[in-house]
Amino acid sequence: MRDLSVYLVLDAGMCGARGLAETARAAVAGGATAVQLRLKDAPTEAVIEAGRAVKTALAGSGALFVVNDDVAAAAALGADGVHVGQGDLSPAEARAAIGPGRLLGLSVETEAQAAAADPTLVDHVGAGPVFATGSKADHAPPVGMDGLAAMARAARVPAVAIGGLSAATAGEAMRAGAAGVAVVSAICAAADPEAAAREIARAVREARA
């Protein structure tokens, strides 16, 4: 499996004046292993434009580059993968669009959704929200660590925990069965994204030891 242990989801508003590309560069320098570009409701052209800058910032780092929802943008950018939610393209449609070689992630919010994720289509699930989060106004009720553990057990693919996580809770998420920790505000809104990513990566390593 490709390394999803420290999975940054970029939020343009939280990155602020520093910008998406510089936030991504700093986070990867600190230990982020995957970066998802999430520009909800943006036209494909805008996703491609932003994605080019992010991809350039990641060049040579070895970090995975994933695009949220927009399979056309992902193809144009040569992204490593796509992530879809429950209300987006179905996993079958997304897999048909991106082909067999790219990563496909699927958001799941319940144990039943985790169990239903088809391992012939989906490479991993994003499981949560573990805690309440301000980065997504319409998120489902938080499931807590027990809910995360139940989803990780139910899923037939690796589960990446998401939702209000930080360096303080990353280790617990890993011990609950997560294959990785996805974060938004803990890195995007940090004064020093590189240091924030380094702390999360350290917590993940210690939990795995």
How would you portray this structure in words?
- The chain has helices at 12-15, 20-30, 44-58, 71-77, 91-98, 111-116, 144-154, 167-175, 185-188, 193-208; strands spanning 6-10, 34-37, 64-68, 81-84, 103-108, 124-127, 159-162, 180-183.
- The chain is 44% helix and 17% strand.
- The radius of gyration is 15 Å and the shape is globular.
- The protein has ten helices and eight strands.
- The model has no long low-confidence stretch (mean pLDDT 96).
- The protein is α/β, with parallel strands linked by helices and 209 residues long.
Compact description:
This protein is an alpha/beta fold.
Keywords:
alpha/beta
Describe the oligomeric state of these chains in a short phrase. Answer: single chain
Q: What series of H and E elements makes up the topology?
A: EHHEHEHEHEHEHEHEHH
Instruction: Characterize the largest beta sheet: strand count, sense, and whether it forms a barrel.
Output: 8 strands, parallel, barrel
Q: Report the end-to-end length measured between terminal Cα atoms.
A: 18 Å
Strand arrangement within the widest β-sheet reads 1-2-3-4-5-6-7-8
The helicity comes to 40-55%
> Which geometry do the CA atoms define?
globular
| Share in β-strands | 15-25%
Radius of gyration: 15 Å
Number of helices, where a helix is a run of at least 4 consecutive DSSP H or I residues: 10
Q: Which structural class is indicated by helix and strand composition?
A: alpha/beta
In round numbers, the mean pLDDT is 96
- The tally of beta strands, per DSSP, is 8
Outline the low-pLDDT stretches: none
